[in-house]
Amino acid sequence: MTAIASPAALADARGQFPGGRGYLAACTVGLPPRASHQAVIADLDAAAAGRPDITAYCAAAEQSRAHFASLVTVDAARVAIGSQSSVAAALVAGAVPDGSEVLVPDGEFSSIVLPFVHAGRGIRVRTAPLSDLAAHIGPQTRLVAFSLVQSATGEVADAAAIATAAARHDSLTLCDATQAVGWLKVDAAMFDAVICHAYKWLCAPRGVSFLAVSDRLAERMRPLYAGWYAGEDPWASCYGAEVELAADARRFDVSPAWQAFVGAAPALSLFAALDPADLYAHSARLAAAFRAGRELTEPPRASAIVTWADPDGSDLARLTAAGITASGRSGRARVAFHLFNDDDDVDLALAALDR
Predict the structure, then answer these.
(1) What is the pLDDT at residue 1?
(2) What are phi and psi of 81, to 5 degrees?
(3) pLDDT for 225-280, tens place per residue?
(4) Is residue 283 within 8 Å of residue 339, measured between CB atoms?
(5) CB–CB of 163/172 below 8 Å?
(6) What phi, psi does 37 have (nearest 5°)?
(7) Amino acid 3: pLDDT
(8) In which order are the strands placed within the sheet that holds 305-309?
(9) Within the chain, what is the greatest distance between any pair of CA atoms?
(10) DSSP 107-127
C-alpha cells in the first residue's frame, strides 16, 4: 500500500475545505478552498459597489498560468489559458495534417475525441484499449490523444509507454490531464500537448483551462481563436487587424473569464505549494483502503478514482441516502478521494454500501 503522506502540510491544506466530509466527487467537480470562496465574494462585492478591478483580473489570470506551469513542470511561456478542454483540443486538431490517423482509447471522454471526429480534411479516428494503447501506435499514426486518467473508470494510462511508442513513430501526443493534475504528478514535457480543465482536482471555478504545448506542435498550430488577449501586449491589441500576437504560447490564449480566474488563482496556489508525492500518496492510499473494504481488484496503476459495476444505480443510491456525494458513469458507481478527504470518508462510504 502507498505510504502515508506527510501529515502537517496536508492537514493545513485540508483545513481550507470545510465542506469535504462525505464529498467523494472531485472527479465531477472540485470544492473551492476558503481563499477562492473569499476572493470571488470579495470581487462580486466590489463589482456590485461599482469598483471592478480590471488590473487584478489580469493578474489573477497570469498567476494562474504560472501556478499551473509549476504544477506540470514546464515554463509558463509554454502555457496557454482558455475556458474549455474541447477548444484546446480543436486547436491541436487544426495542426494535424489532412488525411491523418488519430489514435484514441476506447470510451475516451468526448471533449477530446469530437474535435478530431469533426475536423474534416480526411482525418480518421481509430480506437484501441487504453491498457495497451502504446502497442497500437504505428507508422500511420500522426497523433495519439488520451486522458491520463479515464473519467468513466479511473484507469491510469501508462504514459511513459505511450510517449515512448509515439516518439518511435514520430507521432504527436495529446494528453488530457484534467482528471490527474491535483493528485497525480504530471510532467507536461513528456507530451506535445497537455490539456487540463481546472474545475475538478484543482478546485478552481469552471471556465479555467490550460494548454501546455511543445515547440514542435506550437509551430504547426494556428491561433484560430486569437483575440485581444493573445496579443504580445493585450492592452495594445484591442482594435484592428494590425495586432502583433505573442511570440510564445500566449498567442493561443482565449480571453480569460475574469471572475473564474479570480477564484482559480488561490486554488492553484494552494496545490502548487504542496508536494505532488504527498498528494498522490494521500489520495491513492484512501482509494486503496476503499477498494480493500469492497474487495475490489487493485488496478495496475494506483488511481484516486474507484469505479465498479452498478447497472441499476442501487449502490449510488445507497451512498446518496447516507449523505455521501458520489457519481455514476457508464453503468458504474464512481467515488474519488482527494485532499479534503480522510479515513473517515472511507469508513462512511463502506458503511453506506454495507447497509
Answers:
(1) 41
(2) -105, 155
(3) 999 999 999 998 999 999 999 999 999 999 999 999 999 999 999 999 999 999 99
(4) yes
(5) no
(6) -55, -45
(7) 45
(8) 305-309, 332-336, 327-329
(9) 67
(10) T--HHHHHHHHT--TT-EEEE
40 vs 263: CA distance, rounded Å: 5
Assess contact for 265 and 279: CB atoms under 8 A.
no
CB-based contacts of 191: which residues, under 8 Å, 6+ apart? Answer: 159, 163, 173, 174, 175, 214
**CA pair distance 272, 277, nearest whole angstrom:** 12
pLDDT in tens, 246-259: 999 999 999 999 99
Using DSSP, state whether 284 is helix, strand or coil. Answer: helix
| Backbone dihedral angles phi then psi of residue 202, each to the nearest 5 degrees | -95, 0
Q: Helix 85-93 vs helix 110-117: angle between axes, to the nearest 10 degrees?
A: 30
In the structure grid, which three cell numbers stand for residue 244, read together?
502583433
- Quick check: 4 pLDDT over 70? no
Phi, psi (deg, nearest 5) at residue 335: -125, 155
Torsion from C-alpha of 53, 237, 67, 303, nearest 10 degrees: 110
Query: What is the grid cell recorded at 264?
Result: 482559480
E strand or H helix at 147, and its extent?
strand 141-147
Q: 29 with 207: CB under 8 angstroms?
A: no
Question: CB under 8 Å to 45, separation ≥6 — which residues?
Answer: none
pLDDT in the model for residue 2: 42
H or E stretch at 146: strand 141-147
**β-strand partners of 231:** 245
| Spatial CA neighbour of 203 closest among 52, 320, 53, 32 | 32
Distance between CA atoms of residues 181 and 253, nearest Å: 20
Rg (CA), the chain: 21
**Residue 337's closest CA among 279, 271, 254?**
279
Cell of 197: 480543465
pLDDT in tens, 189-213: 999 999 999 999 999 999 999 999 9
> What is the distance between the alpha carbons of residues 55 and 18, in angstroms, rounded to a whole number?
30
**Percent of the chain, pLDDT > 70?**
98
Residue appearing with cell numbers 491523418:
100
